[in-house]
Amino acid sequence: DTGVSQDPRHKITKRGQNVTFRCDPISEHNRLYWYRQTLGQGPEFLTYFQNEAQLEKSRLLSDRFSAERPKGSFSTLEIQRTEQGDSAMYLCASSSPGVNQPQHFGDGTRLSIL
Amino acid sequence: AQKVTQAQTEISVVEKEDVTLDCVYETRDTTYYLFWYKQPPSGELVFLIRRNSFDEQNEISGRYSWNFQKSTSSFNFTITASQVVDSAVYFCALSEAFGSEKLVFGKGTKLTVNP
């Protein structure tokens, strides 16, 4: 059973550029979550999918952020017109069907904005 | 609103000492779940335990034990006979029982176990 896979591991970009991250959840996990973690803080929830439906978005997710999960498998998180404040670790997690099953996290994508 | 407080920012112990990591939570839900995760220097969050609000039994898993006290809204984590490999940041988290079940994390406690 392979774990949650995220790509790329690191992304360095200039302010104003668009970036896209990919997350491959554990197979058969129907729930997929995106979180953001900054230095010295715990992860903060961004958005959640159940299968292909995006069911909840945090107020942290400005209109520059968009996430998709076509066909209920992998997910992408895109940030448009990146800003300095977007620098963070972006974490993806997935969980199996059932009430409050543990979320399993990937290694994350570290985004650095120059 | 849900909130998790981990008042200990950093703890440093010597190998073989016991150490307790504190977690206090706030929620208006009557049904909720509590979690502990470990984040070693490599960065990946590792699930340790899940506990629902109706189960106040303490749990022991090897050197790890958890004490859930609903009366004080606390879910503390004790490592017995700590080892260098236990060095990591430990996060306590809370989720609602229904809906997205998103996790609300504390700020974490950085544990350093010195040889």
Q: What's the helical proportion of residues of chain B?
A: under 10%
- Strand-pairing-aware structural class of chain A: mainly beta
The end-to-end distance of chain B, rounded to whole angstroms, is: 41 Å
Percent range for β-strand residues of chain B:
over 45%
- If you compute it from the alpha carbons, what radius of gyration of chain A comes out, rounded to the nearest whole angstrom? 13 Å
- Structural class per helix/strand content of chain B? mainly beta
Question: How is the topology of this model organized?
Answer:
The complex is a heterodimer of chains A (114) and B (115).
Chain A lengths: L4 E3 L2 E4 L5 E6 L6 E7 L6 E7 L2 E5 L7 E4 L6 E5 L8 E8 L8 E2 L3 E5 L1
Chain B lengths: L2 E3 L4 E5 L4 E3 L2 E3 L5 E8 L6 E7 L6 E3 L2 E6 L4 E6 L8 E9 L7 E2 L3 E6 L1
Parallel strand pairs in B: 2-12
Antiparallel strand pairs in B: 1-4, 3-9, 5-6, 5-10, 7-8, 8-9, 10-11, 10-12
Descriptive report:
The complex is a heterodimer of chains A (114) and B (115). In chain A, strands 2, 4, 5, 6, 9, 10 and 11 form a seven-stranded mixed β-sheet that branches. By secondary structure, chain A is mostly beta strands. Helix content of chain A is 0%, strand content 49%. In chain A, β7 and β8 form a beta hairpin. The model of chain A has no long low-confidence stretch (mean pLDDT 94). Chain B is an all-beta fold. Chain B is built from no helices and twelve strands. In chain B, the strands form three sheets. In chain B, strands 2, 5, 6, 10, 11 and 12 form a six-stranded mixed β-sheet that branches. The interface between A and B is medium-sized, with 25 and 26 residues.
Please summarize what this structure is.
The complex is a heterodimer of chains A (114) and B (115). Chain A is mainly β.
Features:
heterodimer; A: 114 residues; mainly beta; seven-stranded mixed sheet; four-stranded antiparallel sheet; 11 strands; 0% helix; globular; B: 115 residues; six-stranded mixed sheet; 12 strands; 53% strand
